[in-house]
Amino acid sequence: MTSSVPSYRISVAPMMDWTDRHFRFFMRLISKRALLYTEMVTTGAILRGKDNHRYLDFSKEEHPIALQLGGDSPQALAECAKIGENFGYNEINLNVGCPSDRVQSGSFGACLMKEPELVAEMVSACKAKVNVPVTVKHRIGVNGKESYEDLHHFVSKINAAGVDHIIVHARIAILEGLSPKENRTIPPLRYEDVYRLKHDFPDLPITINGGIKTHSEIKEHLTKVDGVMIGRAAYDHPYLFHEVDQLYYGSKENPSSREDILRELVLYIRSNLAKEGKVHHILRHILGLYFGEKGAREYRKFLTDRMHLSGASESILEDFLKR
C-alpha cells in the first residue's frame, strides 16, 4: 500500500444525522483509507455537555477520522479542537458551509463566509492549540458574496492564518428562502471556481465537493485538485467506495465483498447491542449496500421489515446471508 498518498485524497463528507459512528464503521469496512468526517458537533455541545463521550467517541477502526466543529468563537473552537485532539482525532475541521437555519441562528456555518477575518482568527486560534491539521469546509460563496473575487479574498485570509487544507463545496449557499436540501441541489455547481482557486493557491491542498457520483468524475477532478469529497452518493451508494483503496491509494488488497461486509457487521452489532442502542440505529445506514444491483429492493425490504421489530438483532443479517 502506498502510504505517501494523503488521506484526504478521497473523503466522505460530514452529514448531519447520517455520518454517526455506526455509519463511519460501516464505511471503514468498505474502504480502509478514505478520510471520514464526523457529523458537525457544536462548541456548545462539547463545552456545556456533561458527557463528551456521547459526542466524540469513535472506534479505533475509524482512523483516519476528522472532527467537524461548528461555532463562531475562536477561543471556544480552540478549546474544543484541543479536546478533539485529546480524543484522538486526526484532523479538526471548521464548518463554514452549512446553510441551515439552525446553524445560522448560532451565527456559524455558511454565514461566516461574510466574515473572512473572523474565520482566519478561528483557524489561528485552533492552530495555536493543536498539532493535528486544522481545515475549513466552506462554500464558493453566499448570496451577496458570490463572486470569485469574494471567494479569493476569503481563501487568502484563511490561507494566511495557516489553514492546512480546505474543502470547497462548489455551490454558493442561499441563506434565505432555501432549505438545506435545496441548497445542495438548486444553486448551480461552479467547479471551475475551485479549479481556479487551486491555480491561485498552488501550495494549499484543496478538496472539491458537490454533486460528484462516479469514479470517472472523481478521476477528472483529481487532475485539477488534490482531493475529492463525496457526500450523498457515499450514503446512497456506499459500495462505490469498495475500490477506492486500490484506485487512489495504491492498495494491493482485494476489496471486500458485500457479503464479507455484512458478516463483519454481524460482529459489530452483537458487540454494540450488548452495550446500548437498537439494531435499527445501525441497519438504517446500510440500506444502500446493494444499490444498483439485482435484488437491491428485496434486500432493503428484508431489513426494513424486520429492523424495528421488538427484539430485533444481528440475526437479521445472519438470516439474510443464509438466503
From TrEMBL:
GO molecular function: flavin adenine dinucleotide binding; FMN binding; tRNA binding; tRNA-dihydrouridine20 synthase activity
UniProt domain DUS-like FMN-binding: residue ranges: 12-321
Site (Interacts with tRNA): N95, K181, R184, R297, R300
Keyword Transferase on entry: no
Keywords: Flavoprotein, FMN, NADP, Nucleotide-binding, Oxidoreductase, RNA-binding, tRNA processing, tRNA-binding
Transmembrane segments: none
InterPro entries named in the record: Aldolase_TIM, DUS-like_FMN-bd, DUS_fam, DusA, tRNA_hU_synthase_CS
Cofactor: FMN
Matching HAMAP family: DusA_subfam
NCBIfam families, alphabetized: PRK11815.1, yjbN
Family, as annotated: Belongs to the Dus family. DusA subfamily. Belongs to the dus family.
Protein's name according to its UniProt entry: tRNA-dihydrouridine(20/20a) synthase
Source organism of the structure: Leptospira soteropolitanensis
Gene (name only): dusA
